[in-house]
Write a structure and sequence with these properties.
Blueprint (H helix, E strand, L loop, with lengths): L3 H25 L6 H7 L8 H64 L4 E4 L3 E8 L6 E8 L5 E5 L9 H8 L3 E4 L3 E4 L2 E4 L4 E2 L2 E2 L11 E6 L4 E4 L4 H5 L3 E7 L2 E4 L2 E2 L4 H5 L6 E6 L5 E6 L12 H10 L4 E5 L7 E3 L2 E2 L13 E5 L2
Antiparallel strand pairs: 1-2, 2-3, 3-16, 4-20, 5-18, 5-20, 6-7, 8-9, 10-11, 10-12, 13-14, 13-17, 15-16, 15-17, 18-19
């Protein structure tokens, strides 16, 4: 007879038997969890959907295109840098070649003047000072390259009939250099500029047609020296002079010597002189000759200066007022030796600004 206790024990044995068997199986037959077995869990290639495969192919194509684009950009950048470098070199070479003729020309005309004893250089102009001493007279040559047309101006006192020395004009306006300019006529104790005079682009006393040996010389708005004889206002207007003065006579025109009137060859024969001219590259040359009086025995003749300017390669040249009027001021000092012993007050001066 099975007692109640035995029945309970049998019940629990039967209930636990499956679990005990399972545990024994797991202990005796443990499945391997090595990577190889994990790989078996990876779904086969054929189970990947066509959409997933298309995405994978697109990503692969995009990666290849990105690599090619990156390579293309790199090559294009290298080519651009090479082209830029080459173009820069070409521009520099072209610029150098373009300025070469100008440099050569300047060296040629400068060599005829000798060695400058003073030089001033700024953003607006370059001034070179030379001594002129051919044996028969002594003087100074000042070669000016205008980089800014406004670096050359004319001084004319605002008070009609009032004159001043070149030094006074230089100091009053702050110029670096100056020379006397046109002729003058005295009347009533006052000194007036001779004939056609232009200031700030306007005629001071109206246009006066050239007569006898008078000429007009000045600078236009492009910084070019303009001058000659003008028998009608329109001819001078077309040259657009910004300023200018009048005197006698013309020495060179278009690289050719012009006839010097007999009167000016002997009255006086020799004298202190101031002449102005231009080269074909628009540089300006001024020569101021010393003399101890105006009696004709010291200084230079107009023919001598005409020949000198011609040999120096000047294209156009004009004789400015001379004698005691001749003056050359540079760096706040009088360079020449005025025949009066002192600078003469005159109505007009050509001034240069640094």
């Amino acid at each position: 007879m099975i007692t109640p206790i035995k029945q309970v024990n049998r019940f629990f044995m039967l209930a636990l038997a499956p679990f005990v068997g399972l545990m024994l199986c797991l202990l005796l037959f443990r499945p391997s969890l090595e990577p190889a077995n994990l790989a078996e869990l990876t779904p086969p290639e054929e189970t990947i959907t066509p959409q997933t495969q298309a995405i994978r192919q697109d990503l692969s194509g995009a990666e290849e295109a990105a690599v090619q684009t990156s390579s293309s950009i790199k090559k294009t950048t290298q080519l651009y840098n090479q082209t830029t470098s080459t173009m820069s070199a070409l521009v520099q070479k072209a610029t150098s070649q373009a300025t070469r003729p100008e440099t050569i020309y300047n060296q040629r005309i400068s060599s005829k003047l000798g060695v400058p004893f003073e030089r001033i250089n700024s953003d607006r102009l370059t001034i070179e000072m030379y001594r002129v001493n051919p044996g028969t007279y002594k003087g100074y040559a000042m070669k000016i390259k205008l980089k800014d047309p406004t670096a050359m101006q004319m001084a004319l006192n605002s008070e009609a009939g009032k004159s001043e020395t070149t030094m006074q004009a230089v100091r009053r306006t702050g110029a670096i250099a100056g020379i006397n300019a046109g002729g003058f006529a005295d009347s009533g104790g006052k000194r007036y500029p001779l004939s056609t005079t232009v200031m700030d682009g306007k005629y001071v006393n109206g246009f006066q047609a050239s007569f006898k040996d008078l000429f007009f010389v000045g600078l236009n708005d492009a910084g070019k020296l303009v001058g000659g004889k003008f028998f009608d206002k329109g001819s001078l207007d077309r040259l657009q002079p910004q300023f200018g003065a009048t005197f006698v006579p013309v020495l060179l025109q278009n690289g050719r010597k012009t006839p010097i009137p007999a009167k000016w060859k002997v009255s006086p024969k020799r004298a202190p002189r101031t002449v102005i001219g231009n080269y074909k590259d628009d540089q300006i040359l001024i020569i101021v000759v010393d003399g101890y009086n105006e009696k004709g025995s010291s200084g230079a003749t107009l023919e001598e200066l005409q020949g000198r300017l011609y040999k120096l390669g000047v294209v156009d040249a004009y004789n400015l007022d001379g004698g005691g009027s001749s003056s050359l001021v540079l760096n706040n000092r009088v360079v020449n030796n005025p025949s009066d012993g002192n600078l003469r007050p005159v109505p007009t001066h050509f001034l240069f600004y640094k």
